């Protein structure tokens, strides 16, 4: 998450220097190289490969809303659904097959490095797009587009709303997903069932994303889509905090619905601003500062549990952040000028 924050902050500058598609291609190359470096059985190479790879991934994350805006303006909801669902399917599949792959290769480091293969495929597929963009006639024209710095946006209502909402949803996603099985085990659930509940939570998000993004594609249903997912998130954490562990399936479903704030927010970012440069600036601001703030989540929640001996206080914090997320979502969708880029 810290790599996402630091490297993501440089995305607007990188896109301005080399262009949108070349920046994404470079990011995919960094991702491939960083993952491949983790094949070396060394803690130093594990950390270095992670920093390099996740820095590349950060640029991809920040640049994607701008790519959608530039190439798929009329199909923003569909394309956002496609790439966020692909991310979810990829993450769920990776979690399921990571250990068998490592066992088959006879090495945990090779198991980690194996993920350089799909990254290399993505780079190979995207490279011709980057080359064609660089050689296209409109590349010279884009050099005349004024650079839009992300940081002055922090003084605007739009910048504050988007950044705060992104930080809140990232805090919940990374903090809760990382600790959810441990919370369930501490409540008396066996480890296998706890893992299945984590899988259920992620699985629920796939069809939900499609439905909510289809709703968000219609402006009059945008707020409804946000309220459904944020309301489910809040209800899920209330049930997790107060209800017995026997309710775990319902909790997992509600929380899975709640994690769909991310694609909705990415859709709003892809629609923001008058140019792709403005979209990149807002995406850079929201994701870099948002991930920086959200990095507190996994460490902070675990630290609270370690110091206090249970998860109650940590879950109260999660519940409070979820309530803030609901309020911020309401404010974002009640301010058309904050959404349309003005």
From TrEMBL:
Statement: the UniProt record of this protein carries the keyword Transmembrane: yes
Alphabetized UniProt keyword annotations: Membrane, Transmembrane, Transmembrane helix
Domain of life: Bacteria
SUPFAM superfamilies: MFS general substrate transporter
InterPro entries: MFS, MFS_Cyanate_Porter, MFS_trans_sf
Transmembrane regions listed in the UniProt entry: 43-68, 80-106, 112-131, 159-180, 192-213, 220-241, 247-269, 281-299, 311-328
Keyword Cell division: no
The protein's name in its UniProt record: MFS transporter
Lineage: Bacteria, Bacillati, Actinomycetota, Actinomycetes, Micrococcales
